[in-house]
Structures are given as structure tokens and as C-alpha cells.
Amino acid sequence: MFPEYRDLITQLKTTDRHFLNVFDKHNELDQKIKNMETHVEPGTPMEIEVLKKEKLVLKDELYTLLRKASAN
Fold this sequence. Notes:
Blueprint: H1 6-15, H2 17-37, H3 45-71
């Protein structure tokens, strides 16, 4: 995710608690979705869709935080 910001992501994960929380939540949702899609965890298509939308909101927030940090 966002390879052009790889170094900045690494930096923000250690210096910005909010960024780290959003980043971790995004990764947790990503793993949960993968587990549901591969039937490791139970989940209906509707539940998976809801989680994907949540994950997209978090990804948008991460991108906003990255753009703001890169402008400074």
C-alpha cells in the first residue's frame, strides 16, 4: 500500500500514534477479510462487503495523513 510513501510510513508508525492506530486497524481488517474470503473465519458476503468499506475509509484516512505529512 502506497509504495511511494514507504519511508514516510515507516517514520510515522514510530512517531505518530494516531497514524499507527489507523494503520494497524487497516491491516487487521485486511487480514479478517482475507480469512473470511478463504473460509478460515465465518462471514457472509454482506459482512465482507461492510468490512471492505470500513477498510477503504481507513485507507483514505491513511492517504490523507501521508499527504499532509509529506507536505511538511
